[in-house]
User: What shape does this take?
Amino acid sequence: MIHAGRFFHTLVEIIYNPYEGLKQLIKAEAKVVNNKR
Assistant: This one.
């Protein structure tokens, strides 16, 4: 589960810097998937 504050920060990143924000989001998703294994 992503912390709300962190998720909100990522949303702001995506709004102001879409490319960088998406990279962070993908990285976070990959980390979550790896943790589930």
In short: The radius of gyration is 10 Å. The chain is about 85% helix and 0% strand.
